[in-house]
Amino acid sequence: MSNLPRAFGTDRAERGPAEEVLLICASPKAWRARQPKTLTTAEYPGTAVEWEGRLFEVVRAEPLADGGVRYGLAPWPEAHAIRRLERYDEGSEQARASEHGSRRDSVRRRRLSILLAPLFGLLPGDRQKRMESEFGAPALGMTISSAFPLLVVGFLGLFAHFAGTLGAERLFPVWLAPPVGIALYLFLESSLRLASAIAGGEPMGSLPVVLVFEITRPRRAQAPAPLRAAAPRDDRTLHDRFLVLEPVLSLLPPDDQRMIARRFPFDPIRQGKIMTAFLGAIAALNAGISLVGLIARVSPATDLLWLLPSGYLLFEQISRWRRLARGEPAGSVLAFIVRPLARPLLG
What we know:
This protein is α+β, with helices and mostly antiparallel strands and 347 residues long. 53% of the residues lie in helices and 10% in strands.
């Protein structure tokens, strides 16, 4: 071969045996080498490559120690039909390099998201889902890995407070068992976040982090929409009310939930599982603390007052979960709190 074709990017072209051209590449390409004929299989030609107006066949691909590949390309034999054609030019190599760099960046960012999952899981749920779609970050895993430790800290804080009321000395350091107010907040929020991720399949961030994120996130200036294209004020108000009440609408009677699902993007089963898991965890905690208090006889009247509604609520959530598992909406005795607020959504 008189003229050696020009290589592109970081590739290097060299003369090979006979009419073969060797192309040394720092990273592999999606080229397949020729498969020689065996006793059981026929010969299968390698990838056809168009290079400076000439047609080559990839006859071999040799991995190199540094992770690169040395391709041997020979003039395409006319006896073979072209099944797949690749172009080797400056434009295709730039696109290949950009795709390779993007792939490496995605892998690096995904590894970082796994390493820092307890922190990234505090971000807003929509941001976690965007990270998952952009570079494969495990959105649900991030939420769970960030919520579970805080759930444990909240539980230890509540347990330490309860033990203190019985006269026990401090059992854990403050960083592991915070004051009762902080502990209660961490336990409730983490329970809801875990219920959202495990039962509902939706990532959820921590409220303080979400608020800071929303306040500090730069806003894009948007041109005002034409007056005739704007939604009626009543429709916007109803939609805003739905967004605010969506997490608790699953407490309504099943018929009300079905009616709302016909008018708004409401999923009674998914939201019901989230709220059922959340209420079940809270009811189980309160019932457990009340039982321990009754056994210790610290304030039996108060503990009994808490045990009865907590026990009822716990059994109700078990019954609701069974109905939800069958694909049926399930209401709650707490619907009387939600229904006055949700009445405009029912039409």
